[in-house]
Automatic annotation (TrEMBL):
Region (Disordered): 1-22
Residues spanning the membrane: 257-278, 290-315
CDD domains, A to Z: DPM1_like_bac
Domain Glycosyltransferase 2-like per the UniProt entry, residue ranges: 33-196
Main location (coarse class): membrane
The protein, known as: Glycosyltransferase
InterPro entries named in the record: Glyco_trans_2-like (IPR001173), Glycosyltransferase_2 (IPR050256), Nucleotide-diphossugar_trans (IPR029044)
Keywords: Glycosyltransferase, Membrane, Transferase, Transmembrane, Transmembrane helix
Membrane topology: Multi-pass membrane protein
Length: 350
């Protein structure tokens, strides 16, 4: 699937990928949906709309801007309504409460109607200026053009290092290859979006789901700018939980590690028991060995608790999935022009 950005034009990998592509006409222009989840983005949403519209008008294709309000508690929704009233290209999907970015994004993907879909963060960290370049990739025949951050301006050393560690960890344990330094910023064709929206799992690790659907994909290197205004909604606790989500929804390696750890510890304890028996037979048994006993008990107790905790993480997720609740609830939808025309066309053809 995805190859490193460094692959040269005629490397076997690229050749293999070339043959999977079905190129489109040089001047082809698809209808474009921009999907942006927003949670408390009152400082940036208007500027976001301005910059995105400017870029899309320059492209000249029919487009819509799907703004998902993820239960904001500030003026975000009011501003979205104002934008929608003035601009027929804007669509507002107002969720019934805050569901978190991953689900808000899925809600946007469910409601957009363009032939290609571009996912952007509402804080303008993903430059809309790159959309024409992504369309180039689309013309070459790719289904997914995903943004890869060349550097993370305005992010702390700790965040960069932990992100690095996370990609390394998930890369080594997961069965699907999840591209590094890749966020949600990407262009996808309709068929990719259709397949994505069939994945209804409650625990959504979008980076993983994007990678799971596959299809011919190509990276696009870009500089991720600092957020325009406002504050990031992620703290380290949330990031840790995202990492857990990523690992537990894409690999069962921790379950295996727990069993192997159990087996090795049990085996070592057996050896140790044999040694103790031998020692007692040879030298008798004066009352000693209390510290080693305590160490063994504590260590085993710890290992068991970790293993139970790992099991718990998975069982908790099974519990959440079997309830089969809808992913999100929508309070209200204000449609865009593109949405209305596509819906009418679909009604006429059926
Ligand atoms: N976001 C959201 N729901 C949330 C948290 C964030 O829809 O519960 C949106 C947010 O408005 C922004 C995007 O997700 O458009 C990325 O969030 P943020 O900028 O806080 O994350 P970062 O860029 O720091 O990873
Ligand atoms: Mg951001």
């Amino acid at each position: 699937m995805t190859r490193g950005p460094a692959a040269s034009a005629d490397s076997p990998a690229t050749l293999a990928q070339r043959s999977r592509l079905s190129p489109r006409a040089d001047d082809a222009l698809p209808s474009i949906s921009i999907v942006a989840p927003a949670y408390n983005e009152q400082e940036v949403i208007v500027e976001f709309h301005r910059r995105v519209s400017e870029n899309l008008r320059a492209i000249g294709a029919p487009y819509e801007l799907v703004l998902v309000n993820d239960g904001s508690s500030d003026q975000t929704l009011a501003l979205m309504h104002a934008l929608q009233a003035d601009d027929p290209q804007v669509m507002v999907v107002d969720l019934s409460r805050n569901f978190g970015k991953e689900i808000a994004l899925s809600a946007g993907l469910d409601h957009c109607s363009g032939e290609v879909v571009v996912v952007l963060d509402a804080d303008l960290q993903d430059p809309p200026e790159l959309i024409p370049e992504m369309l180039e990739g689309w013309r070459e025949g790719y289904d997914v053009i995903y943004g890869v951050r060349s550097d993370r301006e305005g992010e702390s050393w700790l965040k960069k290092t932990t992100a690095q560690l996370f990609y390394r960890l998930i890369g080594s344990v997961s069965r699907v290859e999840i591209p590094r330094d890749t966020g949600d910023f990407r262009l996808m064709t309709r068929r990719v979006v259709r397949e994505l929206s069939r994945l209804r799992e409650e625990h959504r690790f979008m980076k993983g789901l994007f990678a799971w659907v596959g299809f011919p994909s190509r990276p696009l290197i870009y500089r991720r700018s600092p957020r325009l205004a406002g504050v990031t909604k992620w703290n380290y606790w949330k990031l840790w939980n995202l990492a857990l989500e990523g690992i537990t929804s894409f690999t069962i390696a921790p379950l295996k590690i727990a069993s192997y750890l159990g087996i090795s510890v049990a085996f070592l304890s057996l050896l140790y028991a044999a040694f103790v028996i031998w020692k007692t037979l040879m030298y008798g048994d004066p009352v000693r060995g209390y510290p080693s006993l305590l160490v063994a008990v504590l260590f085993l107790g710890g290992v068991q608790l970790i293993a139970v905790g790992v099991l718990g993480e998975y069982i908790g997720r099974i519990f959440n999935e079997v309830k089969g609740r809808p992913l999100y609830l929508v309070n209200r939808i204000l449609p865009s022009h593109l949405h209305t025309t596509m819906a009418a066309a679909a009604r006429d053809s059926s």
